[in-house]
Design brief:
Layout lengths: L18 H7 L4 H14 L8 H9 L7 H10 L13 H5 L1 H6 L5 H4 L9 H8 L3 H9 L27 H20 L8 H5 L7 H21 L5 H17 L4 H24 L3 H18 L2 H17 L3 H15 L5 H17 L3 H15 L16 H14 L3 H14 L5 H18 L2 H14 L6 H14 L8 H12 L1
């Protein structure tokens, strides 16, 4: 396992928390408030990529002034208030314009005829670092439409190449070239998809820009998986993971950066492991999860350890090792206990329930399900990990459906699967397809072939947008169950379309 050498004890400039903005959030979780921000943006025709981490950065004072898109959204959400009322600093004090004015008319840009955009200290440091990841990030940090404004690095906005909210580019890439093309379009701007020549070049010690690029890669991979599934993404996502561990080998400039790199590399290993898991590469997934777990143990990161054990439990269940699934889920719960997130403990109880179901232990499964439901009802909190944004009522219902299906209680399974598909946010196309595929299989085994075929056809319609071996395998199993019922309404059409897609 790579380790990071800390070469400087200089602290990063402390940020002043934005208490006014925190007060406006009230009792909502950062993820819930981020959803309100995205909704408000759509109301006025803006597109922002707001998530729980962005809200956290604002409240921590890391983003002292939002870009213009976020400014319009925030002022729309809180009419009659100014940016100052929302706890932000003036734009001139943050973007460097005042400093350039004070420096006089003979600054660097003017001396070259104004052809060069203003270069911030952070961007200059990035440019002077030789690692290809940093060079690419520096090029992407300049907005061609607003080159005189120093945007916060990796702060999403409507023109920034890192903005992935409803990206037309990614949508077109998926429709024309499949998951691999999407991955290339999404990850290349981050500078993490380094080629062989770049990988051979010895990297410089990493700093804040590299840590931010790594964290953004994790978010982007998760977003692509939520929308399109894992197939085609896995091979592309392996390159950022290699780059991440190369950065750990090179060392970091500060301890805080080293911690971020280790956490980011661990989360990236889990994300890549999940892509392998969802596309049927169980051995690869097991290796990536073990890598993440080793990183967590090495750095004492309880949150990362809980996440790694969580995914290990899920993989063990799918790989037919239910007892290991139970043990891994219980280990995850021990790691997560001090973190204070009831939602995380709820998900881990569901992972344990899946293991008990695989062992045909109905009592153990029911007890874990009851615990998961009780923990879920405690609601969201600030302690919920960012990666758990997918875990809502729909996922709770979907995982419970899988437990009852494993136990052979098809009626209960189909009831929960139907609720899961109905409750799922339309944004998560892959999950809608997954829950509907679960519903189709449960209905088929329950003896309702016409309804099963109808659900299966809905899944097939979604496969133009989703690529997932897991879902394809589930549909193949449903087709085998429905073969004797070919004369039932809709079954022949489903069987023919499913066979044509697999051909």
């Amino acid at each position: 396992m790579a380790s990071s050498t800390v070469t400087s004890s200089q602290p990063e400039r402390p940020a002043r928390p934005n208490l006014a903005f925190r007060q406006l959030r009230g009792r909502r979780s950062p993820a819930e408030f981020a959803a309100l921000v995205r909704r408000a943006a759509r109301e006025i025709g803006e597109r922002v990529s707001c998530d729980a981490r962005y809200i956290g950065r604002v409240e921590a004072g890391e983003i002292r002034c939002p870009n213009y898109a976020y400014e319009r959204v925030f002022l729309h959400m809180f009419p009659g208030r100014t940016l100052s009322d929302l706890g932000f600093a003036s734009r001139s004090s943050v973007r460097g314009r005042a400093a350039r004015t004070a420096a006089g008319p003979a600054g660097p840009a003017e001396s070259r005829g104004g052809s060069e955009p203003y270069e911030s200290r952070e961007t200059r440091e990035m440019r002077e670092t030789h690692h290809p990841l940093v060079l690419q990030a520096a090029r992407n940090s300049q907005d061609p439409q607003d080159s005189q404004e120093q945007y916060e690095l990796y702060e999403p906005h409507e023109k920034h190449p890192l903005n992935h909210e409803e990206s037309d580019v990614l949508r077109r890439a998926f429709m024309t070239g499949g998951g691999a093309t999407v991955a290339a379009a999404a990850l290349a701007p981050l500078g993490l998809t380094t080629g062989a020549a770049a990988a051979e070049r010895p990297p410089r010690r990493a700093g804040t820009p590299e840590a931010a690029a790594l964290e953004e890669a994790v978010r982007r991979i998760r977003l692509l998986d939520d929308r399109h599934g894992a197939d085609g993404l896995y091979r592309r996502a392996a390159a950022p993971l290699r780059a991440a561990y190369a950065l750990l080998d090179a060392g970091a400039t500060r301890q805080t950066t080293a911690d971020r790199l280790h956490a980011g590399a661990g989360e990236l290993a889990i994300s890549v492991g999940w892509l392998a898991h969802d596309s049927g590469r169980f051995d690869d997934a097991r290796s990536h999860y073990a890598e993440a777990l080793a990183t967590a143990r090495m750095t004492g990161d309880a949150a990362l350890e809980a996440h790694a054990f969580c995914n290990t439990a899920f993989l063990a269940r799918d790989a037919g090792r239910p007892r290991e699934a139970v043990r891994a889920a219980q280990a995850a719960q021990r790691a997560a206990q001090p973190l204070g997130s009831a939602r995380l403990l709820s998900l881990l109880a569901l992972r344990e329930a899946g293991g008990w179901a695989g062992l045909a232990d109905r009592t153990g499964c029911e007890q874990a399900l009851a615990r998961a439901q009780a923990l879920f009802e405690r609601g969201r909190s600030d302690a919920d990990p960012e990666w758990m944004s997918f875990y809502g009522e729909a996922e709770l219902e979907g995982l419970e459906a899988q437990c009852w299906s494993t136990l052979g209680d098809w009626r209960r399974a189909s009831r929960h699967a139907r609720r899961a598909a109905r409750l799922q946010d339309p944004h998560f196309t892959r999950n809608i397809a997954l829950y509907t595929a679960e519903l189709a299989d449960d209905l088929a085994r329950e003896g309702r072939p016409d309804e099963a075929a109808e659900a299966g056809l809905r899944v097939l319609a979604l496969l133009d947008q989703v690529q997932s071996s897991r879902i394809q395998t589930m549909l193949a199993g449903t087709a085998r169950v429905l073969l004797p019922h070919r004369r039932a309404s809709g079954v022949a059409e489903f069987l023919d379309r499913q066979r044509a897609r697999r051909a």
